């Protein structure tokens, strides 16, 4: 249980980075697509759901989360982690969308379980060189954020905010 709580706290900047883009879309409307509508081999590179507003806003929110945690809890972690973790999370999300488009899956259609894991895997990969972690914490991080993603989606679906439960 201790590992799960620690994993949740340590990777909170990645969780926030992933949660902010859909909120921005809801309040600001769809942003400008990162791929500018360009295609690769006849299909969108990332698709219209991957926007600059989501990438920048999500990374900024994740950075702020990290710096607050670092200051309040006097964490002895390199400052660079604060940028690498949220950026890694959203790059993982981009890689996932790139793969979905290659497989002709439309933006917004669910792709279980990669939709639930992309951001946490991206954050783990991006921070691994600066923050080597015991495998128990890595496994706990994957379990916590996979479960949280499912939970938040289910709540969003029940409230009518999300179109699909997954
Ligand atoms: N979003 C964004 N910019 C990003 C990432 C996400 O604006 N870089 C917003 C979009 O409104 C997107 C929502 O967050 O619809 C949820 O993101 P996600 O579930 O990862 O994307 P999908 O809509 O499922 O699209 P895709 O099929 O490309 O994964
Ligand atoms: Mg995502």
How would you briefly describe this protein structure?
With 166 residues, the chain is mostly helical. The protein is built from 6 helices and 2 strands, in the order ααββαααα. A hairpin with a 2-residue loop joins strand 1 and strand 2.
Descriptive overview:
The longest helix has 24 residues, at 135-158. The protein starts with a helix and ends in an 8-residue tail after the last helix. It is 64% helix and 2% strand. It has a two-stranded antiparallel sheet. It has one domain. 36% of the residues are buried. It is an all-alpha fold and 166 residues long.
Blueprint of the fold:
Blueprint: H1 2-10, H2 12-28, E1 39-40, E2 43-44, H3 52-72, H4 81-102, H5 114-127, H6 135-158
Antiparallel strand pairs: 1-2
Helix pairs in contact: 1-6, 2-3, 2-4, 3-4, 4-5, 5-6
Cytidine-5'-triphosphate (CTP) binds next to helix 2, helix 3 and helix 4.
């Amino acid at each position: 249980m201790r590992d799960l709580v620690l994993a949740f706290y340590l990777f909170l900047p990645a969780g926030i980075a992933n949660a902010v883009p859909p909120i921005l879309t809801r309040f600001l409307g769809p942003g400008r697509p990162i791929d500018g509508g360009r295609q690769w081999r006849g299909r969108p590179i990332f698709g219209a759901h991957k926007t600059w507003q989501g990438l920048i806003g999500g990374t900024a929110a994740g950075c702020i989360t990290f710096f607050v945690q670092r200051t309040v809890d006097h964490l002895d972690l390199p400052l660079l982690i604060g940028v690498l973790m949220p950026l890694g999370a959203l790059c993982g999300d981009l890689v996932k969308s790139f793969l979905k488009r290659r497989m002709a899956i439309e933006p917004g259609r669910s792709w279980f379980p990669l939709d639930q894991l992309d951001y946490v895997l991206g954050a783990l990969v991006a921070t691994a060189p600066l923050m080597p972690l015991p495998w128990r914490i890595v496994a706990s991080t994957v379990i916590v954020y996979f479960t949280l993603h499912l939970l938040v989606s289910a709540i969003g679906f029940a409230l009518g905010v999300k179109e699909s439960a997954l």
